[in-house]
Amino acid sequence: MTTIREDLTDRTLWAEFARNSGRAFRFMLRQDWFGLSMLALLTLFILGPMLNVFVWAFTATRIRPPAILPEEWGLRWWIATFERLDVIEGFTTSIVISLIVTGLAAVICLPAAYAFARMQFRGRTVFLLSFLMTNAFPRFGLYITIAVIFFRLGLVGTVAGVVLIQLVNTLLFMVWIPTAAFQGVDKALEEAALDVGASRLRVFIQITLPMVLPALSAALLLTFIGTFYETQGAFLIGVPNVKTLPTVMITLINHPITQHGAVLSVALWVPSMILLIFSQRVLRGGSLAAGFGV
Amino acid sequence: MAQLTLNQLSKHFGKVVAVDAIDLHVHDSELLCILGPSGCGKSTALRLIAGFEEPTSGAIRIDDADVTHLPANKRPTAMVFQKYTLWPHMTVYDNIAFGLKLRGLSKDEIKRKVEEGLELVSLSGYEKRYPSQLSGGQQQRIALARALVLEPKILLLDEPFSSLDALLRVRLREELKRIQRRLQITTIFVTHDQEEALSLADRIAVMNAGQIEQLADSSTIYAFPQTLFVADFIGEMNLFDAHVTGTGIQVGQTLLPAPDGLPADGAVKVAVRPEDLRPLGEGEQAAMTWTPTIETVMDLGHYQKVLAHAEAVGDLKVYLPKALRVDEGSTLSVTPTRYLVYADGAPPAEVKLTEQQGITQG
Known about the structure:
Chain A has helices at about 10-55, 75-80, 85-120, 125-130, 135, 140-155, 160-185, 185-195, 200-230, 230-240, 245-255, 260-280, 285-290. Chain A has about 290 residues and is mainly alpha-helical. The model of chain A is unreliable at about 1-10 and about 285-294 (pLDDT under 50). Chain B has helices at about 40-50, 90-100, 105-120, 135-150, 165-185, 195-200, 220-225, 230-235; strands at about 5-15, 15-25, 30-35, 55-60, 65, 75-80, 155-160, 185-190, 205-210, 210-215, 240-245, 250, 255, 265-270, 275-280, 295-300, 305-310, 315-320, 335, 340-345, 350-355, 360. In chain B, α5 (about 165-185) links the parallel β7 (about 155-160) and β8 (about 185-190). In chain B, α3 (about 105-120) crosses α4. Residues about 360 of chain B have low confidence and may be disordered. The interface of A and B includes residues 198, 202, 207 and 211 of A.
């Protein structure tokens, strides 16, 4: 603004205001076009394939190329897919392995999380940060080096091997979220319970645990989902004997009948979505971020 | 109905000495305040008594039992914390009943006691509320009820009202005193608020740097602070650097009468309460007169506080009755009527100056 303010009459002020706001509006519009086109592009890129899979999953007959939609809708392929022996086996294997991994992770990580939150010991912060290490390296490279060791130990192709490799993935969630949750419980609340005569065990069960339960269940849920859908590690260590559902899906993708893969994809997608929405509600308030603040 | 005795109690955190060999005896049904600035060790002392900290050395006795190494959940003490410590996942009823259930009381008995406790803190009918539905003051009253229903031998309070607003703090303080008098429960109240301590306590233990500087009732602490720290910490005080000469005590350009028993020579401190500086009337003369220039006048309701500066001695604080009109920038003549003289390592000597300038000593 080079004009001297005192020289401006009301009229010139308004003119300037109009000129400026016009410029701003045009700029906004230009920006908006850019934003809109990005939005459209992303929608196409993300929702497009998902919609396509949905359409395929509920196709009864088939889709003739110029048309986008099938000639007939139906659940025919759902029945066919879930009658496949490899799918049934994969589903059972996945459930069993996920349960074992979640249980083991809870047994290992929850006491560790409590210790991180409540005790001061040497190297505590470094130790806590070390759990980020598994996420700091390219996952697949890590798996291959582990696979080499597992091969020598005879763990490749066994349930134990798959469980072990999947445990690696759970560490971050199962340590950091509960640590943050335990830290969120004011020590004075525990002391108050101790003060009225409760034993340490009772304080933990009746005071501390109920207060961290939402975050703990979210961590368990995320671990279960994460394990259920984990593909790389399970594929690399599990072949050829142990096939989890995602591993089965990989083989189905190249299957001549597209619908098998599509049905399985939708079937796997829906429950994870529901669980993730649920866990997101529980994890409100940045409990993960609180873990970083140690 | 119980007594508490601390015997050479110490607590060290690494190299930091939080509590330094304190001796303290709390009588039956006494309300004792531990008063001190933050970091003086008062809270640590209370946590030692409650059993949340293990003492480095010394002993804690309640009546005739040595509880020094008893864990917190086995001690006959109950504590109200500075923070709000109601358990958020329990109702008010469950919060109060928690300790009673641990004692294996019958359901009816627990119900009766919870109701009694709520009535005691005037919150009857709040059983079904959750802590998040209560105000800060209500939460602290429930916390008090939770402690009282257990009928502890010693009630411990760690700055329980410090996070409440001033008005509520005063009201809860009065309520606490009333309850304490009714139940005749031996109580230790930790605070950094001297007004709180002066108004509540039967006796006050003033703590500084891990030690008890003075243990006495409110009026003694105010009138005869035993150490310079207490003199400065409790109430308002004019403190002057001075030195003893052959003829008296030289404060700035003024010579004050000296009490007996002072060393003939050396540095001392003279402490004058603002209310012990008497304003002189028109034309009135006194042997020791300071005529400071008034810098600030603060209206404190029932009296006014004047901050002034005199060439002869430096800054002065004076309390004046409201009837006396003074203006900032004008001068005021005052004469000391009573002061304490602190020589190094000795208890203070009191000097009272009468109207006729005669000297009485205490």
